[in-house]
Amino acid sequence: MNESRKAVANLVMLGPPGAGKGTQAKQWACEQGVPHVSTGAILREAVKALTPIGIEAKATLEAGNLVSDRIAISIVRERLGQPDAKLGFVLDGFPRTVRQAVALDEITKNRGPLIVLEFVVPDEEVVRRLSRRRVCGECGTNYGEGKGKLPSRCAQCGCELVLRSDDSEDIVRKRLAVYHRLTQPLVDFYEGRPTFGLIDGSQPLATVGARVMATVAKGMKGEPLRTGSSAS
């Protein structure tokens, strides 16, 4: 990365599973040339590779529960310390608790403002999306955005698409219950900050993407995000 570039943004995307934050995080990171840091993806890769963290996290993830703060903070601290995250990053799936948010403030101290966007999507829409979603069993590419017919194989590597074990309806509802219980205190932690904004994640992808870009641009200018960035 060119060290002469100005910082892009330190961005956090919050939202329930299936809110579309992962898709938007990847798109924004690609366009801005900064890393998309998905703690879920890192953990799933660790489970697949049978690393010590993966072995420890496997049963927790398959049950639809969250890994410990200790594991999550350790993963993010290490990742954000890498050179490609120096000028900015987008975090997807972290923080999930107030303890993690406090740790993130410490990790990102003196790195510029932290912009936090909460994606708001009704629970029933989340259930519909995730029960439809399929993922490539080999490369992990997700399919299921929109309402068209899903392919049977991955366009990236040609492997079969499968339903993730934690995307069954009962597990999704459990994940939502865990998310709401743990995330409300997190939203309370952030919502008084001028760099906290809401995004209506139930809108079409392009509309959501445009809203994300406009909201982040406001945050980088030092403008409060709640005016004109609500989910209404």
What can be said about this structure in brief?
With 232 residues, the protein is of the alpha/beta class.
Provide the fold topology.
Elements: E1 10-14, H1 21-32, E2 36-38, H2 39-49, H3 52-62, H4 69-80, E3 89-92, H5 98-107, E4 114-120, H6 123-132, E5 134-136, E6 142-143, E7 161-162, H7 169-190, E8 196-200, H8 205-220
Parallel strand pairs: 1-3, 1-4, 2-3, 4-8
Antiparallel strand pairs: 5-6, 5-7
Helix pairs in contact: 2-3, 4-5, 6-7
What does this structure look like?
- The chain starts with 9 loop residues before the first strand and ends in a 12-residue tail after the last helix.
- The chain is an alpha/beta fold.
- The longest helix is centred in the C-terminal third of the chain and has 22 residues.
- It has a single domain, classed as Rossmann fold.
- Helix 2 crosses helix 3 and helix 4 runs parallel beside helix 5.
- It has 8 helices and 8 strands; from the N terminus they run βαβαααβαβαβββαβα.
- It is 45% helix and 13% strand.
